[in-house]
Amino acid sequence: MEATTTAPVSFTQGAINELKRLHSDPSFDTSKVLRVGVKGGGCSGLSYVLGFDDKKDTDAVYEFEGVSFVMEKAHELYLYGMQIDWENGLNNRGFAFINPNASATCGCGSSFAV
User: Fold this and answer.
1) Can you name the residues that pair with 87 across neighbouring β-strands?
2) What is the tens place of the pLDDT at every residue in 49-104?
3) Which in 39, 57, 63, 82 has the greatest CB count within 10 A?
4) Which residues lie in coiled coils (predicted)?
5) Residue 72, SS3?
6) Cα dihedral sign for 107, 76, 8, 71?
7) DSSP states of 48-66 as a string?
8) What's the CATH number where 56 sits?
9) So what's the pLDDT on residue 105?
């Protein structure tokens, strides 16, 4: 899978490390690709998508510091400039999304409005 253009989103070093750890797990399905995107729903209108999925014909392929991922081109409008972080604290554990395009976010951090 070769990157086509400059990545619209970035990952912190913590997120890169966690994604590489997940990918190196012996049970990881190597036929899946990392997907970044949005879907309708959530308390603020849109929810983030971050997971391993099948590549679709409509996907654009990106790469950021060794992490390859796919995204539907239409989602770039909502996610351009976003940073994905990995939090590993006592109160929060998981991926966090820092999106400069969000006009509002919900308390859970996985839903936003534009």
Assistant:
1) 94
2) 999 999 999 999 999 999 999 999 999 988 999 999 999 877 778 998 888 877 65
3) 82
4) none
5) strand
6) positive
7) EEEEEE---TTEEEEEETT
8) 2.60.300.12
9) 59
